[in-house]
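Project channel, design review

CF: Before we commit to the Neorhizobium galegae constructs, I'd like one complete example in the thread so the newer folks can see what an input/output pair looks like. Taking DMT family transporter.
RD: sounds good, go ahead.
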Amino acid sequence: MHKKAYLSLVIATLAWGGNAVAGKLAVGHVSPMMLTFWRWFFAVAIIFAISVPQLIKDWPVVRKNLPILLFLGVVGYVVFNGALYTAVNYTTAINVTVEQAVIPMLIFVINFALFRMKVSWAQILGFTLTLLGGIITAIHGDLSALVTLTVNFGDAIMMIAVVAYAIYTVALRWRPKIDWRTLMAVPAFFAMVFSLPLVFWEYSADRVIWPDAEGWVVVLYTGIFASLIAQVLYIKGVEEIGANRAGLFINLVPVFGTLLSVAIIGESLQLFHVVALALALGGIAIAEWGKPHINR
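CF: and here is what came back for DMT family transporter:
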């Protein structure tokens, strides 16, 4: 039944649901790229503090696999979070969380295109429902937007984050066989390093905001829960049940994110949000129920 994997993925998605809320709370208190840098700074400090002996032990393998570890850090950690924290400046936290339900569909498409992974008709139906939910959210329930192709700028930026995380999830198949602490620490270090140029860009554009008290609270939450705890649990889930099935659990991010957005920020829950969430939950249920016997 893979109960531990399911529990790990549920906790990870709960933390990520809170990440979108944290990003919204950060607006005006810490700028997006500054938040991205400090998030990974604290994550790196913590993971390195508890992992130095293991990192030294794994270094020979790490050295041979630096390109893929760098790729995971830049695409999965920097691009995704930088785009998400930018998106919430222009759209709601609910929209940002619901749009992440598109990620499993993209994971499926990439896996099928590259590896011809086995897939059932039930999974195709589930992924399609998920995609429809994401589209409904992106156009704010306004079907006329499909004709005029007008999408909120923040929602468009969020699509960059969605594509980045789908690519990251698929790329985990090439992760080296190293301890989870090392697999977390090295990409996180690259994320910290490569987020620095983005901070300098923010500064040169006169958009940088140094964290105030509320900003530091957001930084710590994202650094500990959304970075370390969620990422490690997600990696363990992918190792246990594979990228396609683990990716389905990302559909829970909209559920948790929506509930937290309403409860903490007081955002308004619209009918199109409810429809999108129903499609996301229906998609995950159908796809998981109809998964092939071999789907890794």
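RD: helpful, thanks. The chain has 14 helices and no strands.
CF: The chain has one domain: 3-289.
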